[in-house]
Task: structure prediction
Amino acid sequence: MTDLTMSTATERRPVVERDAVEQLAASLRGELLTPTSIGYDSARTIWNAMIDRRPALIARCLSAADVVQAVRFARDHEMDLAIRGGGHNIAGNALCDGGLVIDLSRMKSVRVDRRRKTARVEPGATLGDFDHDAQAFGLATPLGINSTTGVAGLTLGGGFGWLSRKFGLTVDNLLSADIVTADGELREASEAENPDLFWAIRGGGGNFGVVTSFDFQLHEVGPIVFGGLIVHPFDHAGELMRRYRDVMASAPDDVVAWVVLRKAPPLPFVPAEMHGKEIMAIAALHIGKLEDGERALQPVRSIGKPIADMVMPQPYTAFQQAFDPLLTPGARNYWKSHNFAQLSDDLIDTILEYARRLPDPQCEIALAQLGGAASRKPNDATAYVQRDAQFVMNVHGRWSDAARDSDCISWARSLFEATIPYASGGAYVNFLTQEEGDRIRSAYGPNYDRLVAVKTKYDPRNLFHVNQNIRPTVTA
Result:
């Protein structure tokens, strides 16, 4: 009998007998991949090309029962365990070296209840999958901005997007979830069932188990909305950003506008002479009656003299995919982020200084506007605690050539350091890179100790540790 020796990033080196692996494979309705399997390399390829890890086993699950079997196997054999939904996490936590990956990407069902305005969503669904089905009925819930992002990871970290000023965070719209915990049991988490676990998964990341389905509240949105991209030359970006800040300070909840500073990509609506030059773009959306959109977005559209204004009636699904061409898989990505309560003049000047020296044409600085409904929940309502954040800055280092790693990472880190004096503290856990474990406690602030207690109750041995880890107080 041949053994499989599996070394891991955490120095665990379990030996798993081949017949045990074969028994796991036989127990799954999905398939079990090893490094010699056809499809193994594609299954370990994720969105961020900087991540190159080689799991010993990849369980491509098709059901909650498959997840139960895989969790119990990892627990019993003391293997590192990573959970893959959409594979979009910047830190690469969808994979581990030498351990077991539970791959949920084939569990993509979205079931919409039109009467109750709810949706039951499996963890392998992407934002595009969700929107496709929900928008067939003119319904949506707050999600992110890239249609290839996985619903599961986005939700567990808190989740925000274009609809968050109007309807709150993704976790504010989560009604319940089915979750396989470290003991291998499938539990419901809701306000009525295991409420402590339900509180923790609304922002606490993948620390508490593997969610096999989410139930979301839906809202009437679209299918046609009024919104689009406004592109400005960079020459007067300082003045434009100050006017943007002042306009949005009094904007109603149904108006959202995010700023992106980058080099102009060769998009057909951008004048050719601007391609490759620095620009300031505003993505603006009105969430309400279509006939009210032009009036609602007029203050944003009247800022400066844009070189392109693509604000118009369009399908909500198209708006949700507007940034997809700039966020395709296969590039190298490195992020740094801050939360801001306000955009001061000095902060704006600092950000623009770095926008003038982007190290690669794919790099960008994005400022996501929150506030509104996202800020009105009490800080202890969910594990996500950063309710005072009015703006979230994502310094998005992105490039294709590994030889550019040092330049692009240094630029992102330098901007992060330069803007610390203006930050409100805390962090958005979904934006943390793999070396930012020191920011986890600040990401959860006063909720951290409560999260530790829930972690200790449901995962005392820290089986679920390939994440932005909340360590239990007792580790057996």
Q: What stands out?
A: Residues 224-431 form a domain with the Vanillyl-alcohol Oxidase; Chain A, domain 3 fold (CATH 3.40.462.20). The first strand starts at residue 3 and ends at 5.
